[in-house]
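Worked problem 6 (solution included).
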Amino acid sequence: MQNSEPPAELTALESLNLETGKISWKELELYFAKGILLRVNNKSDLIKIAETIALNDTRKLEEIILNKEIEFVTSGWVKDNCSGNPDLWAVVVAPYVVCQLIKTTE
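Solution. The predicted structure is:
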């Protein structure tokens, strides 16, 4: 017997979580060069911030920006963090690519 219920709709958070993946810095450089690469600090939740962008929650976005939880990737940040071609978590929230350094335990 087949299930007659329609498939459940995914929330924006669930959808973004499924679309997030590891990517090397070298693969992200093009998006940096285009000026569309945003980075999330390592104390914040990449998926929740991506959801805020996707939902265009301007009040929450202003708070996130003011708290420096997200910002455009700068050449200084690249110099300090990407010389060894690290892996990052990334998700596309058009027109941006949002990334976060993968936390390492040392």
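Discussion: Residues 90 and 99 are 4 Å apart (CA to CA).
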